[in-house]
Amino acid sequence: MRAFTTEAAGDGLRTVLRPVRAGNGFEEALEQILQVLRLGLVPPGERLPAERELAGRLRISRVTLRDVLKVLQDEGLVESRRGRYGGTFVRERTTARRDAQEELRRRTERTGLEDVLRFREVLETGAAELCAGTDLTAEQRARLRAALQTTQDAPLGDYRRLDTLLHLTLAELAGSPRLAAQYAAVRATVNDLLDCIPLLVRNLEHSQAQHAAVVGAVLGGDPDAAREAMREHCAGTAALLRGFLG
Question: In this protein, which residues make up the domain named HTH gntR-type (predicted)?
Answer without folding.
Answer: 23-93
